[in-house]
Predict the structure.
Amino acid sequence: MTPDTSTAHGRIGTKSLGAVAIRFCGDSGDGMQLTGGQFTNASALFGNDIATFPDFPAEIRAPRGSTYGVSGFQVQFASTEIYTPGDAVNALVAMNPAGFKTNISDVEPGGIVIVNEDEFAKGNFRKCGYEDGYNPLEDDELNRRYQIFKVPMSRLTRESLADMGMGAKDIDRCRNMYALGIVYWLYDRRIETTVDFLNEYFGKQKNQPQIAEINVRALKAGYYFGETAELFPVRYHVAPAKLKAGKYRKISGNEATVLGFVTAAAKAGKKLFYASYPITPASEIIHGLARLKHYGVMTFQAEDEIGAVCAAIGAAFAGDFALCGTSGPGLALKAEAIGLAVMFELPLVVIDVQRAGPATGMPTKTEQADLLQAMFGRPSESPCVIVAPRSPSDCFDMAVEAFRLAVHCMCPVLFLSDGYLANGAEPWLLPDLDAIHPIEVNHPTETNNPEGPYLPYKRDPETLARPWVIPGTSGLEHRIGGLEKQDVTGNISYDPDNHEHMVRTRAAKVLKAAQIIPPLEVRGPDSGDVLLLGWGGTYGAITTAGDELRRRGHSVSTAHLRYINPFPSNLGDVLSRFNTIIIPELNLGQLRMLIRDRFLIDVIGINEVRGKMFQVDALVKKTLEIMTNRSASVCDRRLNSMP
Amino acid sequence: MPDTQLPTYTAKDFTTDQDVRWCPGCGDYAILTAVRKTLPKLTTRKEDYVFVSGIGCAARFPYYMETYGMHSIHGRAPAFATGIKLANPELDVWLVSGDGDLLSIGGNHTMHVMRRNVDINIILLNNQIYGLTKGQYSPTSEFGKKTKSTPVGSPDYPVNPLSWAIGGGCTFVARSIDIDVKHLEEVMLRAAAHRGTSFVEVYQDCNIYNHQVWFYASQKKTKPDSTILLKHETPMIFGAERNKGLQMNGTRLEVVQLGNGVTEDDLLVHDETDRGLAFLLSQLAHPEFPEPLGVIYASTEHDTYDRVVHEQVRQAIHTHGKGDLHALLHEGDTWVVEDE
């Protein structure tokens, strides 16, 4: 929190802050995702920059009151540009002791903690493992450390809705809106967007106007409680951010992925065929696409992961823009079929919304540990293009890029999103659709060999891509298959020289895609001491850490790879301009391995696999540690390399 | 626009320049011939056929058909075929593969393509053995089968492809034999005409690893007594002397001799549209019973998957109008940041 000014505002003063991170937590049935989402919307519409981090268990309704059933939603809203949901929580709303217990350590010293006091009772203490006789709200140390505000939300919600003639269960479900009302008051937000939402969602979509009414009433009651109870000594105000001018909406990674791929297909005049099998955290993509049939989108929920990718490849052969989406375990199941698409040389895009693994792992938690699987996880030499969006809204841009590359190379493209991007949200400056280049697709209808049979593997000498002739084209009938083919004719071939030629050609084709990949950009000085190099969802954390380090006067720049195979052609040059390359990743060093192999340079990793995004503070600290440890050895290296 | 007049094709038009690489004497040759002879009788243009296969000897089939073709990976042909048909329902998609491919490694996809009723034709070349991998027992091999991988006999009970298909919700189920090209053609014409998934099991002789396994059903001497040729609305008569038939006895089928007061009128009459009867027929097994050949089940009760899916798209466009990308991007709550 960076307080700017204090102004008088009625009886209670208002303090201006630059940025605030709030976390809502409670049982997975307490509606915390909805509550957090509403606060985010209100802040976005107010004009703040926002970044969110929903964090929920895989269990839909874990036993009430248990620590493993806690669902959380963190949002940072700011008057300046931000890239992360924030490290330390400035304000925590805990609907029960389990939420309090699992989240309190993330709250900054002196931070605000608002609890539903009614839930802090003996039975609930036991459920979340507090010792008998211990009440954390009475813990002196905790009370010294945090500003804990005890609000009997259950009772106040019931009292405020007592005359509405609704059942106790429905009334108790409004507690989250009561809490939201308090927070809206405390942070000087307008409640109208949420009132509209409740009327639209419960009133119209679910046709439960009474439910809408009691929720609205609870929201307002919470707001007025904040205003009248004089519990809080001060309210807070976060001014709108000075973002780039234009029209914005809030967008999550999965939402942007949906819109990006629809746009990609539209930019090519193609139908989009999406095949998938339900898997966390990718399922929202099929939910999003299934409602867009009138955009020329067809969705196919297959019998399994393999069926999904195979159907997509079939659709690609028949001429659609073929897409499938999954997570790491599903990508493993699709491996053989993606290898077949490499052999077929057909355009295909496979989304991997990475999650913590191996095996089932932690399905709702994020990780970046599928990079090497994407790179090498298929039989034999089967290179694919790999792209990785760096932020929720970047999923849109990279989706368009993914198909552009798939068609350009006539090969599969892997799109590496992750759970953090998929569920996290940020403001999105709506793109100018006319400024997005069309994706050129050509389906030949004339033979390339008037003297004999059509030649399905006669390549474009520039890109090495083969022609994409689709069934239904008279005179160009041909067969494709998984057996090695003679180049040009596509006939089955076991010839050793031909096989070597084809393996090298498929690899060269992917590398040639670098010609249409934009150069890697460096943030900060384009040469210097340290380069923090990242990829994928860590962009926000790394960028913020880099900015902070430069603010403190260190020679640290950042760069973020959105294209991983092939690398941007200037990558080697960029790397050569820094003394030390540090790669922070949420794995044990996968990009580091690729960079070391490709450029034969030393690279230091900052690696975490906790199912969570990096904390900016931790990145700053670790970078400084590395810089301290390295200064001596860098000197040595320089001396040794002198002529 | 293509010429609307359908060209006249012959079997030769569907023959590629590729050498057929099956073993001499393989039952696949006869099936290939039957398919090449069947297609000219249909009303589909050559460029609109797609032959899809998985892995195995049978799966080389597309290479020999002068149409569009896809030789895919093991077991997954039904999924590829589904994608092709969904992307372009105008295409006439044929899937040719073997018992290991469709019923073992690809069992899941086979089951689901059938229950969805995707409008494709599946030809199962059943030789009860893994040929390409050199002679391991297959999911249709009999219990106790001795092969390289089961030196003391297979402990697996075999799958019955017809029962599987009927149980799985397939809307057209038929059976034929490799050497009876005429009957094969008849059955394939019916399969081609069917809207929805058609499934034709073909008894196919692997003369290298499982020779003569179907001889009881295919050879002149034994065929009449060990098979029964089904015809819709026709009494179920069989035997070299045409003196045997099938009758219901309680809930079971039984073989009866004609004569001694038993006449054709007492026999069961085949009804292709009766799924329960189809299942009973699919269970008939040599040597106790004659094994049914011909169309066992054909139902038009269900719409095809591809039609339903495309209808949903048409409906969506009808209801909402053709999607406007700009509107989609700008939907929901938006806000404007002004220039300073």
Remarks:
- The radius of gyration of chain A is 27 Å.
- Chain A touches chain B through 71 residues (CB under 8 Å).
